[in-house]
Amino acid sequence: MNERHCVIVDAFSTGRYLPEEFNRYGIKTVHVLSAAQIPPFYRPHFNADLYHEVIRPRECMAGGELVEYHLEALRGKELEFVAAGCETGVELSDSLSERLGLPSNGTKLSAARRDKSIMSDALTSAGVRSIRQVVSNRAEDFTSWTLQEGFGEIVIKPLNSTGTEDVFFCSTDGDIQRAVSAIVGKTNRAGALNRFALGQEKINGQQYTVNTISIDGETFVTEVWTYHTVPIQGAGSVCSLERLLDGTDPVVKELSGYLIGALQALEIVNGPAHAEIIVDDNGPVLVDLGARLQGTMSGRARTMALGHNHMTLTAWRYADPIGFVEHMRQRGPYRRKAHALCVSLISDVSGVVAGYAGLETIRKLPSFADAIAFVPIGQDLVPTTDLASTPGIVYLVNNDLPQLEDDYRKLRAMRMDEVFELTNQGHD
Q1: What is the pLDDT of residues 29-83, one digit of tens each?
Q2: CA–CA dist 81, 83 (Å, integer)
Q3: CB count, 10 Å around CB of 281?
Q4: Cα 261 from Cα 90, distance rounded (Å)
Q5: Integer Cα distance of 17 and 264 in angstroms
Q6: Do residues 100 and 142 share a domain?
Q7: What is the pTM of this model?
Q8: Which sign, positive or negative, has the C-alpha torsion 312, 313, 319, 320?
Q9: Most C-beta atoms within 10 A of its C-beta, which of 8, 42, 240, 329?
Q10: Are residues 188 and 291 in the same domain?
Q11: What sign for the dihedral angle of Cα 237, 239, 243, 249?
Q12: What is the mean pLDDT of the chain?
C-alpha cells in the first residue's frame, strides 16, 4: 500500500493536534509554514517532531512568490489534501489546494475569509445579513460615522486579528480615540500589521459559537454553544462561559440555516469552520468566522459531551470522505450526550505563576472533565482583557444538571490567587 500524505499550513492553535488525528488513519503530515518566522504567540504550539517534513519559506516571501515556492517544494509528492491549521494558514491553504487540484475553497474569496470588512461586504452582496461597518485609520471618521448613523455605541477592532485581540466597545469620542490608537500601527498576534481599524454597529443579543464541517458544498453543524461575556473596563468584553446546546434545540436550526447561507456566500465548501453569531430581534447576524478549526478547546471534554469533537470530525472528513458523509447524513442533527460548560477563568490579579494551588480542588468537582490553557509556571498571570489573557479554561460535563450548576458555582467562587500560586502578586 502506498503511503498517505497530506499538508497542514500553520498547524498552530488547535491545528497542532491534527497530525495525531491524521496519523490514526495512517496519514503522514507535511507541515508548510506561511512565513519564515512563526508569530511569537504561536511558537509554543510548534513541535517539528510531529511532522514527516517541515517546509519553511525564506524571509519576506509573500503572495505569488510564496505560493510558487511551496508548490515547487511539494512537487512530486502524492498528497491527498491541504488543510489550514489556524487563521494564518487559511489563504495559503486555499492557494495550494486550488493549484494542486485537491479539495479546496478556492482563492476567489480568500481575502473575505480573513478580512472582517471584506467578509461583511461578501455577505451583503449575497443577500445575507451582516453588521453595518466602516473602515478607517482615523478616529475622526469613526466619530462622524457613529453620529451620522445615530449609534449609541460601536465596536472597534482589527480587520484580521484572532482571539478577541483589541476589541473595544466605544460610546464616547475618547473611547474611539483610545481604540484607534491601540489598534492602528500595531502588529497583531497573527503577525499582521494593522494599517486600519474596523468600526461596527454594536449588536445586542445572545451570542453563540457554531462549528461546522463541509465537504464539496454540503455542510454539517457539529456543535453549538451559547457564549456569555462580561464587560471589561477600558476594553470590550471577555468570554466567561459557554454552554452546550442540543442539536434539536430550535435556535440551532435557526443558526444553522443562517450560517450555511454565510458559508455559501464566502464559498467555504470544504473543511472546518468556526463562527460567532449573535441573535437579536432581527435574527442571526455573523460577528466573525474562520475557515479553520475552533481555537483553544478541549477535544477530550467535547468528546465526553458529544461523542466527537471538531478535530476528530475534520480528520474523518479528509481521511475517509465517503464514510464521513454517509455517517453525517444518517445521523441528522447532532445529539448532546451530556450537559457541558466551558468556563473561562477571569483574573483581576497579576503575578508570576509558581504553581496551581487550587487545581486539585477543581479536579475533585464531580463534573470536572478537563483543564486547559493554564498560564505556564514561571510566566506572568495578568488581569484578563481578552481571550489570550484568560488564565485558564475548565470544562465541566455531567448528565446531572443540578450537580453541574453547583460545581460551576463552586468553581466561579474561587479567587485566582486560590487557583494559582503567585509570586510578586498585585491587584488590578
Answers
A1: 999 999 999 988 888 889 999 999 999 999 988 899 999 999 999 999 999 999 9
A2: 7
A3: 6
A4: 20
A5: 27
A6: no
A7: 0.93
A8: positive
A9: 8
A10: no
A11: positive
A12: 94
pLDDT, residue 236, reads 63
- Within 13 Å of residue 101, how many CA atoms lie on the same side as its CB? 2
- Distances from the Cα of 208 to the Cα of 2, 111, 123, 195, 284, angstroms: 43, 24, 19, 29, 10
| Sign of CA pseudo-dihedral 346, 351, 352, 355 | negative
- Rounded to an integer, what distance in angstroms lies between the CA atom of residue 164 and that of residue 211? 17
Separation CA 291–CA 36 (nearest Å)? 22
DSSP 193: B
Write the Ramachandran bin of 424: left for phi over 0, alpha for psi from -120 to 50, otherwise beta: left
> Using one digit for the tens of pLDDT, what is the confidence trace for 250-286?
999 999 999 999 999 999 999 999 999 999 999 999 9
Q: What is the rounded CA–CA span in Å between residue 48 and residue 16?
A: 10
Domain that holds residue 310: 206-427
- Identify the bridge partners of residue 279 per DSSP, sorted by sequence position: 206, 284
Instruction: Decide if 124 is inside a domain.
Output: no
The set of residues, in sequence order, having a beta carbon less than 8 Å from that of 191 and lying 6+ positions away, is 35, 37, 39, 88
Q: How many residues does the chain have?
A: 428
pLDDT the model gives residue 1: 52
Give dist(CA 210, CA 273) in Å, integer. 8
Q: Does an H or E element contain 169, and which?
A: strand 168-170
Same domain membership, residue 334 and residue 261: yes
User: What does the alpha-carbon distance between residue 215 and residue 257 come to, in Å, rounded to a whole number?
Assistant: 17
Enter the C-alpha cell of residue 55: 517546509
DSSP 6-31: EEEES--GGGGGHHHHHHTTTEEEEE
Q: What is the pLDDT of residues 386-411, one digit of tens each?
A: 788 899 999 999 999 999 999 999 99
Which CATH number characterizes residue 84's domain?
A: 3.40.50.20
Instruction: Please give the tally of structural domains in the chain.
Output: 3
The end-to-end CA distance of the chain, in Å, is 60
* Residue 276 grid cell: 460567532
Instruction: Quote the CA–CA distance of 158 and 188 in Å, as a whole number.
Output: 8
Q: What's the pLDDT score for residue 407?
A: 98
DSSP code string of 365-424: STTEEEEE-PPPTTSEE----SGGG---EEEEEES-HHHHHHHHHHHHHS-HHHHSEEEE
Higher pLDDT, 172 or 235: 172
What is the grid cell recorded at 281?
430581534
